Amino acid sequence: xxxxxxxxxxxxxxxxxxxxxxxxxxxxxxxxxxxxxxxxxxxxxxxxxxxxxxxxxxxxxxxxxxxxxxxxxxxxxxxxxxxxxxxxxxxxxxxxxxxxxxxxxxxxxxxxxxxxxxxxxxxxxxxxxxxxxxxxxxxxxxxxxxxxxxxxxxxxxxxxxxxxxxxxxxxxxxxxxxxxxxxxxxxxxxxxxxxxxxxxxxxxxxxxxxxxxxxxxxxxxxxxxxxxxxxxxxxxxxxxxxxxxxxxx
Length: 249
Fold this sequence. Notes:
By secondary structure, this protein is α+β, with helices and mostly antiparallel strands.
């Protein structure tokens, strides 16, 4: 009975290990990938224990041999992300420093602590694969002019001093007087107000002081971005009556 239990567990571990190579069905992909990535090294230890036990028997044949093979393959597959993470962590900091120099002039070199733990590393690698498969960066280059142009057009609004950005990252600066580039006084809490009125209009933005930050998902379409700009204008219009009292004239 124990031999059958070990065989079944070994096959299950082997199946989970395959997730480090192949994708699971779409509706289960993220849950099973998390299992294989975040806890894969611990499952690999369990497979290793079964491997040692099964192969230490006096006679290894039939079901015992199948258990050894399944457990052995499970060990290789489940430790694969950890080995990849270890290998990347040995070379990437030096490559980053060679390309960009120290993190600060005269400072310590780049270092990575939790980034290359068994969980985050395979997730990061899979993310980069998805970016390449779906041509995310090409898509961003195509749609980003819609966002940058749309936000730039809001400079005609009384509250907007300037808008600038690159790709799908942008910031809009709120000013009490755009001609003299006079900011709003702190008590106006202009950024927080616009953040709230945008949320009420159906748009999530992030206020950094009196600067409104935009970092939409990279899969946004041109229509999505046009709608985003339109909702931002609604948020600005809603905040204007309150902020008008802090503006000259």
